[in-house]
Amino acid sequence: MPNNIKDKGLRYLKVLFVLVLTVGISVTVYVYLLVKSQNEKFLLQETDTVAQLLDVHTACSLHGDASDLDNPQYITLKEKLQGAVKVNPNIRFIYLLGQKKERIFYYADSEPEDSKEYSPPGQVYDEASPALRSVFKNKEPVTEGPIRDRWGVWISAFVPVTDKATGAVLSVVGMDIDAYGLIWASIANSAMPALATMILAILLTIYYFLRKRELQRIAMKAESVSITSHEIRSTLTGMAWGTELLKEKIEKKLDDEENELLNRIKNSSDNLLGTVNDLLDLHALESDPRKAPAQAIDICPILRSSLLNLELTARQKGIGLDFISNTKGVCIVADKEKIRRMFNNLISNAIKYSKPDTHVSVTCEEGRTSFVFKVTDQGIGIPEEDYQKIFQGFYRSKNAKDQTNQGTGMGLYYVKMIVEAFHGRIWVKSKVGKGTTFFVEFQRCPDPTNGSTHSAVSMAQKPKHA
Ligand code: ADP
Q: What is the CA(391)–ligand 1 centre distance, in A?
């Protein structure tokens, strides 16, 4: 299978994948940090509230040793701390700390006296972190964590209790919440964007590989069609050449009927050769539309010769062909042969799907930077829901199939490919039972003198072609 498939869609998918991952990871990290910082803010606010509740005189009247146990101020303080923990179950510990000669000790904590985690008044807090010490020094509240001490791993907030008169830090209120709980809460909140990113990334990856496999399959099919077409072309060229030689040699010896037969063989092999060439052209365009040769060409003579070639077919159906142009020269950058095929396809479709004794008109309108060609008929029309499908290949509308079984549904696919190879646009407007107009727009040739566009090729305007 060909592995080096170059496809715009696949490239966009890759870009989309990277975009989804980048945005998804950024949102996940953002939500994680947001929840974490909100929790820390909440902790600080709660600690501050408790600090506000504390009576400054309480802190002053405590000694920070076993003698406090009988002090009514201590008992009230203890009740307040325990009450605060009860009100908010997320909070594990609240405590009041003091400092004497660089040593941090407990005044009181929220633990009952029979708890293993209870710290009696005066117990030294050896694990005091630099952040906690900085609160005594700088008088600024801080949060820190996760930090580990003998009781567990915590996110902590420390708020100073200051003497308003002197500004001195009397004590510090500390509050701990379980660090793992907070981290899990942050992870749980960011799980949604992380999950959505993962699902999207997986779906995109699956779609990417399915699409790649499909493209590889199409490329293989096209490759084998191309190889077969080359084989058929060389055989057909030999046949056409042989028939031509044979005709030259024995033409005079044959009667009219035999000559007619020989002509038919020659015409059929020529037609078949044309179809095979179309197929090979289509394959080349499909493989790389940018490789189509292009030069400044005048479209009017091409259009006129197309109309002339199809005149007989049209006349047989009683259909008149008109060519109306509001411009003298129609210069676009494209390949003559491909543009001829494009018009042949559009005009022969218009004739094929026209009602007898009607008109098919081709018009060219000159815009500021582009030309718009319209091929209009008064035929069976195209249902609106088929506007896209008819350009996708192997598709024929029901009303077209009802009218004739001649058609492959590949003509417009080829036309669209040609139009896009030369950076044009094609679209259709139609009314079922009333008629259809195909619009094709191409940019004008660039003007070499001033960089703008112009109609470089002069030609006589021919308002009517019948
Ligand atoms: P086909 O060989 O069937 O004509 P095309 O690719 O040229 O294939 O066109 C695809 C389909 O578009 C047709 O089968 C028909 O349904 C519709 N179509 C194209 N041109 C016209 C038109 N001028 N009027 C009505 N239907 C059209």
A: 9
